[in-house]
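User: Can you help me understand a structure? I only have the sequence.
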Amino acid sequence: MTDTPDISPIRTAVSKNLGARYRAELRFRAAGLAAVAAAVGILVILLSSIVSGGLPAFTVNELELTVDLDEELVDPSGERSEDSLRRGSYSRVLQNAIRTEFPEVTGRRELRNLFSLYTALNATRLMDEVLEDPGLIGTQHRFTMPLADDLDLYLKGLLVEERSFQPQGTLSLEPSDAGVVVRSTATDFRDLAAEIARTLRARATLLETEADRLTERAQELSGTEAEDMLYDADLNRRQAADIRARLEIDAGPIELDNSLPSILVESEGRTVRLASLARNGAGGTGEYLLGGDSVEAENAWSIQVIDTPVERRRVSDQLIVWTRALEERGAISSTFNTYLFANADSREPELAGVKGALYGSILTMIITIIISVPIGVFTALYLEEYAPKNRFTALIEVNINNLAAVPSIVFGLLGLAVFINAFGLPRSAPLVGGLVLSLMTLPTVIIATRAALKAVPQSIRQAALAVGASRTQTVFHHVLPLAAPGILTGAIIGLAQAMGETAPLLMIGMVAFIADAPTLGLEGFTEPATVMPVQIFLWSDGAERAFEARTAAAILVLLALMIGFNALAIYLRRRFERRW
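Assistant: Let's start by predicting it. Here is the structure, written out as tokens:
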């Protein structure tokens, strides 16, 4: 009788090995899920920042005015001809309309400030409406125009930090030599006075600290540089001493300069900006920014505090008051920003749009499609189906693969040297941009087409040849239709990549400021134009803050186009896909 071998050690070893393999698999799956989660999280953060930054650009605050199209101003010659209408004083028409809203504004400086509620370019838009309908001459016309960009940001809550509250006391306004005296029966301004005092004390402390730092630095130096530092330190100490003197208990009211928050008192259509604030919290002195024809006491009043000082913002208190007054009168309304899609680029953010860049991208991509797709597909067909396998074709394949890895700006240099300098084609034109992007896209289309052709089974070719089809009939009647989904997918992805390119187009001059959209026709291919990525680049460098939202909005439009291209690729692949 034979003894049964003991296999328990083997089972133990196998169990340990399986346990280690299972644990390794779990760790690998966890690492993969963590990588996917990290990628999704980064994508969500990126899209969230772009969407949150671009949403304000899709709405606009419009100012609607009743303009009097006086024939003497609009049609100086009285001929109703286009030349006469173009010589009309439409800026004066808009100025008269806004002055009607605020008849108390008469000074030259105040009027210039009032006219900055909108950009002067709106006069051209008014002229276009009159040219389109000359019957408006001599009538009162409701004209809508975008508010100035900074005021638009203010109404969206993106320009300043402000707060308002309802006081408890009764307000009285009394005229004085300094303007108007604001008094309240309660200590409604006490907290504001204490807050301003704390701000001034903190500023004095910072000045003294900076003075001490400059003094220590000056001791390590000599000559003119040390003297300059000592002078700056002494100046900081004197400023700090002046501030502390203003806060003495026996001193007068606290003066509110442009470095401190603005305090506005509003009551029944009247607005007073305080120039000083009493320490006991009972009021202060100031000047009228709106109204001022009545000094009777009012029970319904409010205090608005603009925490962002005047010296740190682009709009004055007066402009803010006028804007709020127009909004209360219903002359300002928030609507969808059609200017973003109906206008080309502009120096004024409120009138800037993506129409010109969108048309330029369309014309450029038409040239790219016409050149890169046919040439790329036929090149791949020849190399895969007809070309002999020798050193020459191997060299061509290596060069095609290398071209696919060449930086895009190199193709821009090639286009600058060949198409512009050698052939004399116009700069900043969709024709040249399309040629450059075609050169860049060709390797991608060729590689994708060859991969799709290789995926077609050889049995398809052999069966076609076996029933008497020629080589050309086999390729075009059987192989090419079966490879069409992969070819279309690769071509569309390559074109989507070309649509997002910026560097090669910068080299051929498509970074220029283009105020008019190109024509969607044959003549548009040689007209000056820009494209969406370059427009984003230009707006990102804009000085006005409103261009930040325009930049994010243009990115969203470009992303929508890219998503559309990729969705089209997925649809075509599924639509023409065949299984074998």
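Now, to help you interpret it: Residues 162-313 form one domain. The longest strand covers residues 59-68. Let me know which part you'd like to focus on.
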